[in-house]
Amino acid sequence: MSSAVGGGGVGPDGLDRRRVVQVVTTCVAGPGRRGSGYQVTGKLVLTARHVLCDASSVQVRFLTEDGGIREVCGKPVLADSASDIALIGIADDPSAGGLSADEVSPVRFARVTRTVDCEALGFPRFRLRAGTESSDRGELVWYRDSHHARGDTSPLSYMRTGRLEVTLKSAPEYDPERGRSPWEGMSGSPVWSGGCVIGVISEHHRPDGLGTLAAIPVERWFKDLTPARIKELGELVGLPGHADQLERLPRPSPGAPELREAAELLASRLAGQWEKEWRRRKVHDPYPLPVRFRNADTGFDHWASIRDAPPGADPGPLSLTGRLNEIVKVYRSVPSRRLVVLGAAGSGKTILTLRFVRDWLRDRASDDRVPVIFSLGSWDPTTISLRDWMRRQLVRDHGLATLIAPGGNWADTLVDTGWILPVLDGFDEIASGLRHAALKELDRTTTSFLLTSRPGEYAEAVADRPLPKAAIIELDDLTLEDIAPYLPRTSSPGPDRGLHKTVWEPVLDELRAHPRRLGAANAATVLTTPLMVAMARTIYSDARGRDPRELLDTATFATPEALQKHLLAAFTPAAYEPVPADSDSGTDRCRRRRWNPDRAQHWLGYLAAHLDQLGRVRTGVPERDLAWWQLGTTMRRSPRVLVIGFLAVLALGVTTAVGNVPANLIATSHGLGFALVRGLVVGLLHGLVNGLLFGFVYGFVSRGAVEPSHVRIQVFGRTGEWRAKVALRFKLGLMGGVSLALVVLFLDRVVVESLGLGDGLDGGLVGGLLFVPGLGLGAGLVLGLMAWLEVPIDTESGVSSSELLSQDRRNVVFYMLVWGLVFGLGAGFAQGTVDGPAWGSLVGLGFGLEAAFGGGLAYGLSFTTWGQWVALVRIWLPLTGQLPWRLIAFLDDACERNVLRQAGAVYQFRHAQLQDHLTQVFLTGRDGRDRRPVDSAESMPRST
């Protein structure tokens, strides 16, 4: 249970001291009353009904930060004697020091099934104090201070009267005035537990002692109140429509404190990530679009199953109608905690999931589950279970790879112990042949979730059998009444600085006056989805020089599909429209000016086509997660082999050429010209051999994406299993080294000397005889040593892709050191025994550098994900114009422009329709013919 509520706001369990009030009434006859209450909405205070009995006037007093009071007039709005609860209406006036409507978060209600900790904050009589200052008449000022009552409550006490017994940890030591309870004035204070209201303080039974209070439980309200009153409370304060929709306390065991801390850390990271994404989407600029949802027409399981009703009971349907800002409330009203959200393409499903996660995290209690968005398009339910797939996504996107036990990590444990609330976005993005398997896996799991899908794909998947215990809502289309006040607010003001005569007025007037005209009907059909409204806003409100009246042009846009295609095509250029920089512009604005709109669209098209190809190879549908570290893997194998071979040529060729020049200058008398020419020729020949070798091996082993090496370097603690691997690697290195030595020996002794570039430093016959086995033994020793030091990373326990990439980079540096040390020390020692330590050191340095770059670096570029990232994404693709040099900066900037979004470690296009459109444009421009993706055609939303 939370500690005392302090500071300026919300306590650990949701109790906000700024919303606690003292209720002071004046009665028609007799003395007035004192009570407590809590501000449950911007304009309503919850209290006990008997506090307001016979009241002629009501004053509500809030505590201010400095210890003073803010008093407002109140008026009873609802008072029920059977349940002893009441609502007081107050003025919503933030300018007078009160909270704004956004700061008054919804109150959650719960029922108690076992003993739980609880708390209440009110103004009892025993807190009566005399002020230190006098009034104008010289009298002391009396006031009641607040009291934070903490204790526990059990549903097994007061069973006959249906009350909650609140047993307090501390209480007044004595009764100061017989006949009057010291707890007078505490009535009306809500009782909190787990961030929820579980009751309202109503009585103090003196025979029970000073440490016990009685409260009316929220569950009891459903027995004492009429259905009409329950519905009224639902509309006013968000009370669920049925008792079985109340949260149950205590919740399932949260596990060890370490798990709670891990969940809190994950929740904090997600809150920051999605709050940033919320601002990027301009959801509140100028205000959120009024997206609404309702009960879907088909696809439901039995309501008795959804509502966890006992056998034989038929509780009837739930009303799941609401707006976007009520999605958390609606989800919590579903007892099974399984909710499916259906909506057409662009209807706002992704924004709904974002709103759900954001609002949940804002009001999350410490032991609440953590909502995590998972994009289902990359899930293949035939190869991996939902649990394992979610675990891997958590590792990839949120870095939960720290091992906490053998074979387990934080991701495993959080999923297994129920801390994660899956928000499964895009069921329709799963390949059609896999959807039935996905439903079976969702059926098999016992976890609760929120799932989104397009209606047609979901209806087809559940045609034979509904998803068990899943309630279903469907998003409604936007109407003209929804967009008419919104679009003018997004544009520049009219001449009178108001909403009249904006660029949108002619379009909206046409939609109102002539809704049946073809142009107006087309525009009305397209602008029924938040996606298209947002794109129209970007094109015509945010950018300059575009007139939205062109949306009504039937000669250009004869159908709604043509108009939708126009908005998709115009969106990216508008998002990258150059913005004039102010003289004091910051680096962000300057950076955004550098992206040429045409080049940006080409780069985005390449990324979209990459995802299309990658997804169709894996699952048959376009991939939606842009893993930046794998961007080069969908290039054809032949250009990849050429790039890797060319870099291997440079790695050995440059170091060989550079190393030969000082050797010839020092050890021969041929001069600088000879040294430069020989260095160039030898470097070219050796580099070509190295490039052919690594290119051939890479082409042989690279049938698809090159996976990270999945190994790390460990000196101690290995088992005997390494012996077979070391022997195999040594043999391969020996054979490869001997073969390479024979080719190099032929080139040096035949080709180079035939060109008159022999320098006499090859050691003659003895040198040749030693060079071949020496190079073979050195390569075998290097590969064997690396096999001995490499330990597999337990990727099943989970390591994020960025960590694997960093591990690959460290491995490449280590490989270069090993190659350099083995060959440098070996060659230096052998040469030093003949020609002395000075010459031996020079030869060892030269051989070490050539081996480090020609062997270690070439190996890293060829066979590690980091090497692929550097070779293909950071070098080749920018050189060929497919991607920008500053790729990560470009991706981040695209997120700022709302073209992309970031989801954990990966990027995603703002919407699948935009991705598919860019894919089509890119492929058409590359091949010169229409290449519409198979799944890109979208059915148009209904006309309003």
From TrEMBL:
Keywords (A to Z) from UniProt: Membrane, Transmembrane, Transmembrane helix
Pfam families: NACHT, Trypsin_2
Domain NACHT: 337-456
Residues spanning the membrane: 518-540, 641-663, 675-701, 732-752, 764-791, 812-831
This protein's record includes keyword Transmembrane helix: yes
Entry annotated with the keyword Phosphoprotein: no
Source species, domain of life: Bacteria
Coiled coil (residue ranges): none
Protein's name in the database: NACHT domain-containing protein
Organism: Streptomyces hyaluromycini
Phylogenetic placement of the source organism: Bacteria, Bacillati, Actinomycetota, Actinomycetes, Kitasatosporales
